[in-house]
Amino acid sequence: ISSLLLRSVDHTSIPEWLLNCCRSLCCADVSQSALLFLCQGTLTMLDWQDGRMGPSGEALLLDTVRVLFTLSSQIKESTLEMFLSRILASWTNSAIQVLESSSPSLKDRLNGNSDMVRRLLEYVYTHWEHPLDALRHQTKIIFRNILQMHQLALEESGSDLAADGFIFQLTESLLRLEWHSKGKYTCLGCLVDYIGIEHILALAKTIPSQILEVMGDQSLVPYASDLLETMFKSHKSCLKSQAVDSTWIDKWHETWVSPLLFILCEGNLDQKSYVIDYYLPKLLNCNPESLSYMVKILQTSADAKTGSYDSRGALGALMACLRTARAHGHLQSATDAWRDLVSSARIKQGLIHQHCQVRIDTLGLLCECNRSTEIVSTEEMECIQFFITYNLNSQSPGVRQQICSLLKKLFCRIQESSQVLYKLEQSKSKHEPENELTRQHPSVSLRQYKNFMSSICKSLFEALFPGSSYPTRFSALTILGSIAEVFPVPEGRVQTVYQLSHDIDVGRFQTLMECLTGTFEEVKILAFDLLMKLPKTFVQFQDSEKLQGLFQAALELSTSTKPYDCVTASYLLNFLIWQNALPSSLSAYLKTQRVACGDGDKSAALVESNTLIVIKCLLENLEEEVSRAENSLLQAAASFPMYGRVHCITGALRKLALNSLQLVSEWRPVVEKLLVTSYRLSAVVSPVIQSSSPEGLIPMDTDAESASRLQMILNEIQPRDTNDYFNRAKILKECDSFDLEDLSASVPNIDTSAEIKGKEGKTCDVTAQMVLVCCWRSMKEVALLLGSLCQLLPMWSVPESPDGLLTVEQVKEIGDYFKQHLLQSRHRGAFELAYTGFVKLTEILNRCPNLSLQKLPEEWLWNVLEEIRCSDPSSKLCATRRSAGIPFYIQALLASEPKKGKMDLLKITMKELISLAGPTDDLQSTVPKVHALNILRALFRDTRLGEIIIPYIADGAKAAILGFTSPVWAVRNSSTLLFSTLITRIFGVKRGKDELSKKNRMTGSEFFSRFPELYPFLLKQLETVANTVDSDTGELNHHPSMFLLLLVLGRLYPSPMDGTCSALSMAPFIPFIMR
After folding, report:
1. Which of 132, 160, 393, 604 has a C-alpha 20 to 30 A away from that of 244?
2. Which residues lie below 8 Å from residue 157, measured CB to CB, with a gap of 6+?
3. Beta strands of 1002-1065 (E only): which ranges?
4. Could you tell me the keywords of this UniProt record (predicted)?
5. What is the pLDDT of residues 477-491, one digit of tens each?
6. CA 264 – CA 680 distance, rounded (Å)
7. Shortest CA distance to 370 belongs to which of 417, 329, 325?
């Protein structure tokens, strides 16, 4: 096996059976993956316990780790990297087994001062902040095993592990590291487990305060809190074992609780929040008795420091501690907390405190409890009512969400505890129960619950007055929705203490309907969801005359020129679709509209039947309006923008389970009409959306008189940003009856407007903005409609299939539609929404059992890559606007590729794009290079590709840096954007205000171990830059890529852990930087 691993096999000495089975492993060039898993087999299949392998086994063990170290510097694919880390961790486990009964020579070679352990530590330091969480976890295992290996190696000497030189140096070097390094926390935690906390506290007495200081950074909080927990648990057990009385707790409080109280009173907002959420619960779970110590100190301080708008003060700290204690079961009830620890007046003071978090913590104290059946006391209900009066209008979304969430927890407690009370009441006990649940008769508590909930609902509906603010409406509707959800309509023998529908009269129903007409969609959603939670037998839902009026209003709103009106119409229609009385209330209206519904299938679901009626009605109106828009787009933009109808159709389809339809024969022609009408609508608005400057375009009416003139104008405003953009200027074609003055007169700029006749025959102005909004919203809604059809409707390839709604040809037509608009639209709003619909289509195609449909994404990808590569001047691909929709198109095709496969499309595409983005002397390659750089940028930004894209970062960085030296501005611009994306991808999103935040850096060894190809490249580029800095004239000559190189190198820093003889040392860069 050693010969196989070291690739030094003597074929004459190999057994014949091994040669027959593993001939490929016996050759010199074994693949990295094969060698890696050969190491794994060696470690897992051989018996390393009790020294059974003997001296040759010890030699094999050392050979295995040397091979793993070699592979570590060569393997860069994330999957193999993770396997390597697991195998290396497995090696350390095997080494521990061998060390337990090994020879002294092996112990010398595997103690902390040996070369093997040094290389293992280098691996840990290089990978302890790796992007893969599983790999970081393996580095923790390796580090812990290193400590155990060293401990076993020292067993015979009998020396104290904590006093050992290797451990001492290791501890000191870890403490010297900056606290932003996540690996530091993990390794210090392992050290505490092995040597205890006393030795670390002796070296760094203020370490608890140091760790609490960094808990304002969310990315470090889990690591810091886990380390603190390990430390204070170790310290407690150490002090208890040494103490003779209870005075040890004072020292423990001074070390761990006092810094916590200082942070709670004086720390910044984020720091306090994370300490309360992560550190405080662990501290109380370790020592619940500390609560009384904390409350005693905070009570004294709260009298003097009640806090302010921007400071919680001691009162805020007190409420946070009590809330955490109760939520984790350290307080039996809020009443006990008030009586024994804090007064009722102080609770109310917290509920209306100037600082929002103090109010939230006080509310949490009342609402949160570790037992869902604990009775809500009268005092708690009074305080909740008091709180709601003053806190519905919070301007902070986060605070609103927390208030609603906490109140929902309270309602759940009321519902759960009421079931217990009903059981107690049914037992018909003659005496009033006196137990931990209740101190009064169950019927009294149930009556209090009902009165309390009615009072809450009254306050919430009163807050929904006309003109009330968005925050108030959001809070009130969310809480009402929680009440309707927590207290459902009783079924069978289940009893409920409260029903919301019993408290909704005509006035309150009208209030909810008026909430649908607001400008904020979140309020519409909440009001709609609340209406849908009410029982279907609700009296207000049975008034057919009122439903008919609502339907007529919804149709009028769906064609309003105000964009938010169509959203209102959509929610109104979706509400009406679910009402039993809808068909009867629309009989007269449908007759005038000549919508052929018939009696319908009696077995069909009512919702499906109603949806079909509504969509037919909307579609008939839409077809008529598209016909009118084909003659006058200006008239449509001013009087009947069509996107509202499409939006309502899409909204109705989304609420329906289209994969289990019963009226298939009636749906099929409707779907076909929807597709045809969508394509017609798209054709009407496309000239504006695909114009190179759609923001200021007003097209002429396409009636017979002006058709030729409009065509002439559209020919001249065709996009000038195609593949000949960088080669020659666009020259206007000559025309006898056309000149520039006619053009400026016929196509006004953004400040002019055209006059047309509105619905009532009145003259109204149409601005370029109105036309553009109408066009791009129409394109957006068509894209979303087609995406919904692809995602929800079943596909069929056999014409005789009775259940199919969408044919293969129709799916291909939809794909061609998306392709055309993604590759030709210039308006970002249009192609971004087309991308959303196209993603839905590609996801469906990749899962489709039909092979011809499965291969469509691959065909589309090859076609667009070929078009980019050819750089034909007649191509309609947009070379400016960051390649417009082209990156979105390729992104959708690649991101939807199944991740469990080989990702062949991504590999081939990246290879092609990096080749196009590389340096070349051919001037004809400028446009393909710009496209390639823009597409690479989009792919590196796509989070769905995750770690799969990491192996291409080095090549992308090379292309960006070399592209920065191009003489063509467009190439330099795209290279700059790509480089910026790569910096974010490598170093993370910038969260600090300073230019070089500690969180967005890494050590040189870590950076170059992830991207080894960049080491010689950056060194060579830096040398070139240094050689061109000094010119013959004595003036500084700044090389174009100097800034990019320094930007990368400025984010790298030397670590105290870096090996002095590292092959990827930063030392060679220093002379060139100094020059």
Report:
1. 160
2. none
3. 1002-1003, 1052-1053
4. Coiled coil, tRNA processing
5. 999 999 999 998 777
6. 63
7. 329
SS3 labels along 631-692: HCHHHHHHHCCCHHHHHHHHHHHHCCCHHHCCCHHHHHHHHHHHHHHHHHHHHHHHHHHCCC
What pLDDT digit, counting tens, does each position of 396-451 carry? 999 999 999 999 999 999 999 998 888 888 775 545 444 444 567 888 889 999 99
Q: Name the phi and psi angles at 326, rounded to 5.
A: -70, -40
Whole-number Cα distances in Å, 288 to 230, 238, 257, 326, 1061: 17, 18, 12, 11, 51
- Number of Cβ within 10 Å of residue 299's Cβ equals 16
- How far apart are the C-alpha atoms of 1075 and 1073, rounded to whole Å? 5
For residue range 798-844, what is the model confidence (pLDDT) as tens digits?
A: 444 555 678 888 888 998 888 888 887 766 766 777 788 888 888 88
β-pair type (1002-1003, 1052-1053)? parallel
List of residues 6+ apart from 581 with CB closer than 8 A = 541, 542, 543, 544, 547
3-class SS at 980? helix
Note whether 815 and 856 are within 8 A (CB). Answer: yes
DSSP state of 257: I
Which range has the worst mean pLDDT, 142-146, 716-720, 1053-1057?
A: 716-720
Amino acid sitting at position 172: E
State pTM to two decimals: 0.79
CB atoms near residue 962 (< 10 Å): 19
Helix residue spans in 871-919 (DSSP H): 886-895, 904-917
Pairing mode, strands 753-757 and 763-767: antiparallel
Residues with Cβ within 8 Å of residue 360, at least 6 apart in sequence: 399, 402, 403, 406
Neighbouring CB atoms inside 10 A of 727's CB total 12
Q: How far apart are CA 568 and CA 524, in angstroms?
A: 7
Can you tell me the distance from the alpha carbon of 461 to that of 463, in angstroms, rounded to the nearest whole number?
A: 5
Going by DSSP bridges, is the β-strand pair 1002-1003/806-807 parallel, antiparallel, or unpaired? Answer: unpaired
Q: Kindly tell me if the per-residue pLDDT of 508 is higher than 80.
A: yes
DSSP 679-731: HHHHHHHHHHHTSSSGGG--PPP-STTTHHHHHHHHHHTS-S-STTTTTS---
Beta carbons within 8 Å of 992's beta carbon, 6+ residues apart: 998, 999, 1000
Q: How far is CA 547 from the centre of its chain?
A: 40
What b/e readout covers 1012-1032, taking b as 16+ CB neighbours within 10 angstroms? Answer: bebbebbeebbeebbeeeeee
pLDDT-derived band of residue 732, with 50, 70 and 90 as boundaries?
very low
Q: 């509504």: which residue's tokens?
A: 614
Please tell me the distance from the alpha carbon of residue 619 to that of residue 434, in angstroms, as a whole number: 67
Token pair of 729 as six digits: 């200027």
Rounded Cα distance between 713 and 744, Å, is: 10
Tokens of 988: 């993370």
Q: Residue 523 — very low, low, confident or very high, per pLDDT cuts 50/70/90?
A: very high
Q: How many Cα atoms occupy the beta-carbon half-sphere of 256 within 13 Å?
A: 28
Q: Say how far apart CA 312 and CA 316 lie, in whole Å.
A: 5
Q: What is the DSSP letter of 1036?
A: B
**Residue 311, SS3 per DSSP:** strand
The H or E element containing residue 757 is: strand 753-757
Stretch 942-956: mean pLDDT:
87
Cα–Cα dist 395/397, whole Å: 6
